[in-house]
Each structure stands twice: as C-alpha cells, then as structure tokens.
Write the structure tokens for this entry.
Amino acid sequence: MRSIAYVLAILCAIAFVVVGTASLLLFNIERRAFDSTTYKQAFEQQGLYNRMPAILASAIEQMIAQNPNAYPFLKELTVEDWQSTIASILPAEDVRALTDSALDSTFDYLNQRSDSVAITLIPIKARLAGPSSMDIVNQFLSTQPACTIEQLQQMALGFLGGSIALCNPPPEALGLIAPFIQGQLQAVIANFPDQVTLVPMADSGTPNDPRLKLHVVRSAIRFSPFLPLLLLLSIALFVVRSIHDILVWWGWPLAITGFGSAIIALVGAPIIGLFLQFAIQRQGFIPLPPLLAPSITETVSAVAGQILSPVIWQGLAMTVIGATMIVMGLLLGRRVVYQVS
C-alpha cells in the first residue's frame, strides 16, 4: 500500500511539472495578450505607428463606398488619396493617439467592456475644417492631370451632386472656383461621421457573438493555476507525514517547474509568437477587426517577448523557493538522523 502511494505521489509530481509549466505560460498569455498596453509597446518597437495613415485611409474609403448618400467628390478619392491627405494633415502625435484609441477600442471589445470597435475621425475633421483645408485641396488637385474645359464644368457640377472627374485646374481657374470649393468642403466636413465602426454591436450579447467561445477559453485559463495546487495537495495526501516530507516532495516539483518555465520563457518567444499568430488569424478564436488584424499580427514576436518577460522572474522565484525547500528538507532529515543515532 505504501509503495502504491509513492507511485501515485511521483505521478502527481510529474503531472505538476507539466501542468504547472503550461498553466504559468497560459496564465501570463491570457493576462497580457488581451491588454492594449502590450500592443502599444509592440507598435512602438516595430514602428507600426507609421502604418496608421494607411489603415485609416482604407477604413474611410470603405465607409464612403458603402454609404449611398456620400458626396460624389468623396467617392472619387482613392485609398492612396486619403492616405496622403491624412499623412499631410496629422502630426505624428495625433497619428499615435488615433492608433492608441483604436487599440483601446479593440481590446475593450474583446474584454467585453464595450460592444463595438470604432476609430475616431474627430482629429481628421478638425484638421480638414481648419485654415489649412484649402492648402490640402490644392495639394491634392496638383497631383491630378490637367483639366480640360469640359472637366472644369463637370467639376463645378459635380460638387452640386453630379458625377465628378477630378483634375488639376489652371491657377486662374482655381482662383475662381476656390471659394466654391471651400464652401463645399465645409459642408462635406460637417456631414462627415465622427467615427468609423469596424465591428458593429449587432451580434453583441447574442449566440452569434464571436467573443463567447473566447470568454470560455479565457475563463478556463484563469482557473488553471488551481490544478497544480490540487496536485500538490494530492502529493501531501499520499506521502507527506512530516515537515521533512513536505519540504522535499513539494520542493523538487516547484524547483523543476520554475527552472523549466524560466528556460522556456528565455527561448520560447518564437513558439509563443506562432501560437498568437495562429490564434489571431483564426477569426473565430480571437475576433479582431479584419482591418486591424494584419498590423496586430505583425507585433506577435514583440508581444511574445513582453508576455514571457514576467514568466522568467516568476520561474526563477519558484526555482529559488523550491531549492530552498529542498535544502531545508535535507538539513532537517540529517538532523533527525543525527538525533536518532
């Protein structure tokens, strides 16, 4: 009977090492992979803040294309036109603020603190409505082919609601139509939405909500540390009969688990990065907005390093605790032997 208890205790100790290591890694992944701060730091490291004008341009172009009531002038603008406009009117700090706002909105959605994901357009509207708005229009028109007489007429009619072929008017014509363009631009800006919705709230709280499966998985991960604790209690139930037993039988699993976790955290960033990339690319697992998913996927290597950083220190702490218990257990065992002899 005693030998069976020892075998069961050894099996529990082995299971503790495996389960404890996995639990430590998963717990830190769950805690930091769904925090927007982690991705802001990764965006900084990867230089992805410079990509935000392209992301915003794509979002605005899609929004206008899907809006039947949008001004014809706006429908003529391409993604490249919007990207160059945004890059010219927004300073780097505004681009960074917009990016951070989009990340906060995304992870508020994933953490069920909100029911939609949106990118604010208020800074862009403010810049377009400012004194530099006409300069932006001139800069944009200067990149177009030279206007013909018919195109100038079409441009004027187009701002009134017809179709429009954008072109570069001569300076004297631009001076004549500039006040008209300025007035129409202000009307366009006034009717421009304050935000672009990337994930609507239509499915929120319904069985079709893509976050439900994710919530179940994350809840299981949060409770995963209780399983290693249960295994330690099982070891104590099977073989612990003294302080010496608990120090040795708990010390070895703790030390091995901590050391193994620290080693994995030091060299395992590529593996964790691949795991995160797989999870992000499967939209049913982590339901990110398709517009932001590619950029966030590019950060997985940097994110993995930040996730694993605390695992190194946690693993080393477990190693020290386990090694201390082993040493104390051995010293206590020698003392008992010495006293008996």
User: Anything to note?
Assistant: The two ends are 28 Å apart (CA to CA). The first strand starts at residue 117 and ends at 120. Residues 53-199 form one domain. The beta strands are 117-120, 195-199.
